[in-house]
Amino acid sequence: MDSLVYFITSGDDRALFLKTIHFAPGTDGKPNSFADNLAHFLEKEELMGYLFRRIRVALPQALAALVPNRLFQAEELPTYLSALTDLAEGEVTQADELSFGDIKVVYQQNVAVADLLRKKFPTARLYGMATPFIEAAARLKTETRENYVVLNIYEGRLQLVHFNEGKALFYNSFPFHSASDVMYYTLLVYEQFQLDPAKVPLLLSGELMESSDIYKMLFRYVADIHFTDLPDFISWNKRFNDLPSHQFFTLFGLSRCK
To answer: Which is nearest to 55 in space by CA: 42, 36, 74, 73?
Structure first.
């Protein structure tokens, strides 16, 4: 990843500060590893030297799977992703519990990045990016609240989650290279669950603008399509009025994680 975002709130969930950090390339012109960029950020960013009562971090991860609690066994943790991928060197399998329903999110975690954060912030809670995305998506308000799909875009990947009557029925993440790829994976969810694109809303978040090819293509096929709003579980002030809130959707979801 070539960037990170951090967000500071008060103890009563009032928004105080939000900042995006874009990492510069290395001396050879190639991107540094995320662990190296993160180490530099933690050392140089002044606010990272403050004492915070609660710290939550969403770590980048390529794949994740939803596992019902009734089927989950901690000793079998590595097997839940084995059908999807082989763990890369320096990765382990972790699991987060969602705050709603009886379900866990199983995902890959980079050991070096996790160790770096735990050394800097011993009390920090670490999550995969799927967890806050799903937590935020579960709290969206739509007109029917029965069926909806949420699409999140970040750094060449997309995340999709489908909710029906408050239950997460589907989650997956895919790399993409074009607007056609995004359309394909999104409409595949509609087809798989027999959702009517003329009736079931699609909510958009992440690195996506109305002028983008992705939005224009999706707009042609899904009737009810719009960006996610600022969440109602955080108190905002005027300084955030112009915030493109959908771009930070996953970040906001961290405040709802268990």
So the answer is: 42
Cα dihedral value 5, 6, 9, 15, nearest 10: -30
Q: Looking at residue 82, what is its pLDDT?
A: 79
- DSSP alpha helices (H): ranges in 160-248? 179-192, 213-221
Quote the CA–CA distance of 111 and 126 in Å, as a whole number. Answer: 12
pTM of the predicted model, to two decimals?
0.92
pLDDT in tens, 124-157: 999 999 999 999 999 886 555 578 999 999 888 9
Cite the beta strand spans of the chain per DSSP E: 3-9, 15-22, 56-59, 64-68, 91-97, 103-110, 125-128, 147-154, 157-164, 167-175, 202-206, 225-227
SS3 label, residue 148: strand
Distance CA 203, CA 54 (A): 29
Residue 155, classed as helix, strand or coil, is coil
Whether domain 135-227 has CATH 3.40.50.10610: no
Distance CA 227, CA 223 (A): 13
* CA–CA distance, 32 with 194 (Å, rounded to integer): 43
101 closest CA partner among 78, 132, 69: 69
Q: Hunting for tokens 């087809």 — which residue is that?
A: 191
Looking at residue 28, what is its pLDDT?
67
Structure tokens at 160: 């999709």
